Amino acid sequence: MRRIGLIDNLAPCLCGSGRSYDECCGIYICAKAMPFTAEALMRSRFTAYAQRNADYLRETWDSDKCPDSIDFSRETAVWQHLEIVDTKKGGPQDDKGLVEFKAYYLQDGEACVLHEVSRFVKKEGRWLYLDGVIKSLGKIGSTVNLGKNAPCPCGSGKKFKRCCGAGK
Description:
By secondary structure, the chain is of the alpha+beta class. The chain has three helices and four strands, in the order H-H-H-E-E-E-E. It starts with 24 loop residues before the first helix and ends in a 29-residue tail after the last strand.
């Protein structure tokens, strides 16, 4: 199990790419390079979220959709790994992209999954997260579909539509 705040730079990256953190998401999170595809940005944002790195998340969020702040104080999930389900566009030559993913985590000792489709846009040569639609969330084997009135999975205590789903 990964411990929050501790990163083994030579261990396989949490995003599931099979490369080490230093050769994968670490180069983006430490600003040594910019993600060249929407999928690479998705992977690095997952890793940053698992690290509770609000600065990186805000820097890679489209300014028209980015929340004023990201509060991890109520976050109790321990993020385990990411599975990319599908991508549409989002390549180096594209301006838009979709990434469907499943993010696996432990919540109070229970294995859970978040299934989302995220939209990305490239502005001035840089990929940015635009927004996402959560398809399902919850314990593995008993996930529930979420609507905009469901509690936001980020732990803010707000409705999804008033938090991470704002502006969708």
